Structure prediction request, 117 residues.
Amino acid sequence: MKFVTAFASATLLALVASHPAAAADPAGEARSIVVQFADLNLDTRAGAAHLLRRIRNAAERVCANPDRSLEKRMQEKACIKFAISNAVATVDRPMVSQYVIARSGAQEPAHDEVPHP
Prediction:
């Protein structure tokens, strides 16, 4: 069954736990939510959009902080962005990545602008 956690794999979970904006429970353990997507066709824009909504909802739940101070709200926003980025990278499907780039307003580099190793 296809799934991704809000923070991706166990390896990335360790990285998230060390990120200052990462969601953690009171015991300091990093939190995650499994996002199912076996029912989605990730080769379509509609499927990519639906998965991104699921990932965003999971990230918002995982990163939620009842403290509404400016500092905590900024940390929550950074946590959500970090969780979404990691989940999208873990899914590693071109249409999902393209959809996220298009929604963010960022431009993909032109083929001749991509650095070669």
